[in-house]
Every structure is written in structure tokens, then in C-alpha cells.
Design a protein that fits this description.
about 45% strand, disordered N terminus, mainly beta, about 280 residues, Elongation Factor Tu (Ef-tu), domain 3
Length: about 280
């Protein structure tokens, strides 16, 4: 299916497949780790244990050294790894923990690490081209709705996957523009300029209509001053994976700013929308 077909072709056909039934989640403990580009250590987001999501630091005692993991990015193969015990950052972030994975790898793209016996990728995840006028217009409309009348639309990621297994694909759109870094990797500036923004959107089909929900948004309509700078935020999709073995893929996202990051994991269903289940972060 082409990127445009989700929007432009008759949408009722996408609903003919029966709704995917959730599988029983795994028993025991299933840690969730994230390794961001250029980093050796993996951030502990939390764990799934016996029907519950547990945030840091309550999950730390449950994450054991020598546990086996599979690491997986939005593209590329999955790889085996063995993790150590969680270690706190201490200082400004005592509730922020990292786990060292072996063999040591420094990824160029974000990687999720899940329990080795989980089928964390039950359905394909496809990275689509960012030069897509349909999705550019979706971003433009959202920015105008938020008061940015003439935005410079820059799509950073477009990802397609059937998150809940109902036979209909969802689309995640990531768009970010910082005037200070209009080209290259968008790094959140200390003092954002009017027109800077970052959006993370989820598109899906419901009752024959394409719908959009916002997973994260920061739109700069008024810049700060030297005395009171207005930090920009970058919203980013870090990964998609079934983190607890129930057959539905969760979304792992980040919100970054100058000298700080927050990482979240969301469950999602067409009826219930996104629901944050894990959260951690560190920043000055």
C-alpha cells in the first residue's frame, strides 16, 4: 500500500479485516530499555510485571544482571544482547537508570531492548519517504490550528505499522523545524524563535474516516529573551515494539530540550487512544 493510499483510496476497505484479538501478556518480568543514537548505555524506562506497568525506580530491583535481550530499531535486524544491573545517574537524576548491554554497540539510530523471548515485532514496521505532500499538509493544518499561519514544514520521520493487529495500518508522522538548525539533525535551541515547532502525530482509520491524534507538540508563537530564554522542545518517535507480549505494539517517544530528555511509552487502541504507561527522564 502506498503512503497516499491510506488517505486517498476508499477507506472502508481497510476495515474489512476482523479486529485483532490481544494475546495474553507474558508472565514474569519484561524490562524495557532504550539506547539513543551515539550512546553506549541504555535507559531503563520500566518493566511489565504480572499485568502491571512499573515505572522507575520501583522496577529497578526487578531488572537482573545477565538478563537476555533483543534489540530492535525502526529499521534493520534485531540483535541479541545481555544486560547488566541498572545503575543510577545520581547527582541531578537519582531516579534515572542505565543498563549496560553486551556486546557493546553505539547505535546510529534508536534501539529498543526487550526481553529476548518476546516477539516484539509481530508485524512489519515500514519507514516511508518524508517527501510526501499528503502528510506535509496534515502537519501544516495542525500547525495552523495551533496559530502558526505560515509554517516551514519539515517532515523528519514517517512510519507505517499495524499497531493493534486489526489489519489496518497506522501512520506516525514526526515533523520538526528549528530556524537555528534548518538543515541537518534538529537540535533543540536554548532560545527558540517564532515559527520553531516539533510535532508527533498518529493517524489511523475509524469508521471509514482518517483521524489524527497528537502524541507530542511544541509550537513557538512567542520567543523568549536573553534573561528568560524560551527552550525549544523536540518530539520524536524512538521505537515501536510489543513490550509485554500481548500482540499490540507500544510507541516509545522522547521529548528533548537543551540538556534534558524525557522518554515515554504509550499503549494505543482505536477506541481508547494513546495512554502513557512508562516515563523517565533526566535534565538540568
Amino acid at each position: 500500500m502506498s503512503p497516499k493510499s491510506l488517505v486517498l483510496l476508499p477507506l472502508a476497505a481497510l476495515l474489512l479485516a476482523p479486529l485483532g484479538a490481544a494475546a495474553p501478556p507474558v508472565t514474569g518480568t519484561a524490562p524495557v530499555l532504550l539506547t539513543t543514537p551515539g550512546q553506549e548505555g541504555s535507559v531503563l524506562l520500566g518493566v511489565w510485571k504480572e499485568g502491571r506497568w512499573l515505572n522507575v525506580p520501583g522496577s529497578v530491583p526487578l531488572v537482573k544482571a545477565d538478563s537476555a535481550y533483543r534489540t530492535q530499531g525502526l529499521s534493520g535486524p534485531s540483535l541479541s544482547a545481555v544486560g547488566g544491573a541498572p545503575v543510577s545517574y545520581d547527582g541531578p537524576c537519582p531516579d534515572y537508570f542505565e543498563v549496560t548491554l553486551a556486546p557493546k554497540r553505539v547505535p546510529t539510530s534508536s534501539q529498543l531492548a526487550t526481553r529476548a523471548d518476546l516477539n516484539a515485532r509481530p508485524r512489519p514496521v515500514t519507514v516511508l519517504p518524508t517527501q510526501n505532500p499528503v502528510y506535509a499538509e496534515v502537519v501544516r493544518a495542525e500547525l495552523r490550528r495551533r496559530g502558526l499561519n505560515n509554517p516551514a514544514v519539515q517532515l523528519r520521520q514517517v512510519i507505517r505499522a499495524d499497531l493493534d493487529g486489526n489489519g489496518s495500518d497506522e501512520i506516525v508522522i514526526e515533523a520538526t523545524h528549528f530556524a537555528e538548525r534548518a538543515s541537518g539533525e534538529p537540535i533543540p535551541p536554548v532560545n527558540a524563535q517564532v515559527g520553531d515547532y516539533s510535532l508527533l502525530l498518529l493517524r489511523w482509520v475509524a469508521q471509514g474516516q482518517v483521524r489524527t491524534t497528537v502524541l507530542g507538540a511544541d509550537v513557538v508563537l512567542k520567543s523568549g529573551t536573553l534573561d528568560a530564554p524560551r527552550n525549544a522542545l523536540r518530539e520524536r518517535l524512538e521505537g515501536l515494539a510489543d513490550l509485554n507480549g500481548d500482540g499490540r505494539m507500544e510507541l516509545v517517544t522522547s521529548e528533548s530540550y537543551y540538556e534534558g530528555d524525557t522518554f515515554d511509552a504509550f499503549t494505543w487502541t482505536p477506541a481508547g487512544g494513546p495512554k502513557k504507561v512508562l516515563e523517565t527522564g533526566c535534565g538540568e
